[in-house]
Amino acid sequence: CNDGKMSVKEMDAPLATPCNIQICEVTCDSFRIVWDMPPEDTARATHFFIDLSRKESRDPNRFKHRDVPTKLVAKAVPLPMAVRGHWFLSPRTEYCVAVQTAVRQPDGDYLVSEWSQVVEFCTGDYAMEHLQQLLDKAKVSAGRLLKFSVFYRNQHPEYFDYVRECGSLMRPALKDCSGSHGSPINGKLQGVFFSCNTEFDTGLPPRDSPYGPLRFQIPAGHLLNPNISLYFADFYCMYTAYHYVVLVLAPVGSEGDTFCRTRLPMLDLASNPFLTYADPQRPGEEPLFCHASDVILEVLFTEPVHLDQGSVEQISGHHQLKSLTTANAKKDPSCKVCNISVGR
């Protein structure tokens, strides 16, 4: 053809199978995809078909109709192509993706290539902007601040026996995957979990616990003081009316502080809706410690804690409230209060 237009024969020629699929710029809810195809295919392709599925889907018949689009139909654009919003991608989730190139015919049918090889990739954690959205939602639920004086940790006798065998140090353990799937601390940050919520009528820690009949109590100032950095890490519920807020306490300059500084929103110790420290007003007075009243705080302290810094005592209430434990608990994806728009 001398006029630069493709002949009918060229238009009907088979399309090459896309190859060398590459995924880049992956976030918690988006990615960019690029592949190789001959210049003649680049010139005539009108659409791309993209098939995306979670990796755990091992159905051998995933591409049931190889001659029609199965998932997303996108108009052909210069590569790499941004993919976001189409599937409500979840953070930190493994996906499989394959592509086809296509030419839309005058009759509306498509001439399509073979499917490319299947490529696997994993989405990322929540970025700081997403955690800020989660923080803004958590602030609405926090409620008024109540005074408290101790952090506490409930466990079974076997746990404390083990701690005593290890030099009486409660050592940091890797955070499990409970709560929001995209929280950057899940499976990555080590710490020792403490509670600080109190009962309305007594101002003391609750008499009951789902975690065990023995309680380690430590004066609040050991974990919360001007030498500590405070971070917001998560906000979630587990199909219940009450919500959890996960906070991280890390000594300034520590490994935990360094990890959190670029990943989590930092909170002002003296002014935030969840957990506050105020210097003594007069000589001889104690600092003032307050916690949010309408959420359950889970406080992760990133350094070892020695039993000699506090005391271990039997609690007076029950300790079989298993429904309140949160180990690897999954967040309710339908809750309007604690979900943001970038996956679960």
Automatic annotation (TrEMBL):
Signal peptide: none annotated. Residues 17-126 form the Fibronectin type-III domain. One of its GO terms (cellular component) is cytoplasm. Pfam families: PHYHIP_C (PF19281). Keywords: Glycoprotein. InterPro entries: FN3_dom (IPR003961), FN3_sf (IPR036116), Ig-like_fold (IPR013783), PHYHIP/PHYHIPL (IPR042868), PHYIP/PHIPL_C (IPR045545). Its interaction with PHYH suggests a role in the development of the central system. Belongs to the PHYHIP family. Interacts with PHYH and ADGRB1. This is Phytanoyl-CoA hydroxylase-interacting protein. It comes from Sparus aurata (Gilthead sea bream). The gene is PHYHIP.
